[in-house]
Amino acid sequence: MKKKIVLLVILIILLLAGGIAYAYYATDLFKTDKEMFFSYLIDEKTGTEFNQEKLIEYYAKQASTPYESNGEISFDTTGMSQSQGLTEAKIAFEGKTVNSRKSI
After folding, report:
1. Please, are residues 66 and 94 in contact by the beta-carbon 8 Å criterion?
2. Distance of alpha carbon 11 from the chain centroid
3. Buried b (16+ CB within 10 A) or exposed e, 22-60
4. How far apart are the C-alpha atoms of 34 and 59, rounded to whole Å?
5. Contact 74/88 with Cβ under 8 angstroms?
6. Which one, of 45, 96, 94, lies nearest residue 66 by Cα?
7. Which helix (H) or strand (E) is 71 found in, with range?
């Protein structure tokens, strides 16, 4: 009877130790915020490396075909003491590029 109890206690201790080891190595349960930040940063970096071929294709296409770019940048400076009467500003831009006509 005592052997069964001792075996049961040892089995429970082993299961708890295995669960804690799994939680420590396989999950983020015991990691600090700094460790989690860098692990996610590394995961994000490896996720973007697979798209490198598409990025190379995009640059090759951009070099061989004409394209247009346009956009707008705006900002509000209310509440800034150094704005000197300027409260809102907007910059709009448009561009057309034909890389095949460019000279080096």
Report:
1. no
2. 42
3. eeeeeeeeeeeeeeeeeeeeeeeeeeeeeeeeeeeeeee
4. 35
5. yes
6. 96
7. strand 67-76
Return d(Cα 59, Cα 99) in angstroms, integer. Answer: 11
Alpha-carbon span 63 to 99, nearest angstrom? 6
Cα(71)–Cα(93) distance, rounded to whole angstroms?
5
Helix (H) or strand (E) holding 12: helix 2-26
Torsion of CA 9, 15, 19, 25, to 10 degrees: 110
pLDDT (tens digit per residue) in 32-67? 888 888 888 877 655 555 667 888 888 888 778 888
Q: What is the mean pLDDT of the chain?
A: 81
What's this model's pTM, rounded to 2 decimal places? 0.36
Which residue matches tokens 């109890």?
Answer: 5
Cβ neighbours of residue 83 closer than 8 Å, sequence gap 6 or more: 77
Question: Which residue has tokens 């089995």?
Answer: 11
Helix (H, G, I), strand (E, B) or coil at 31: coil
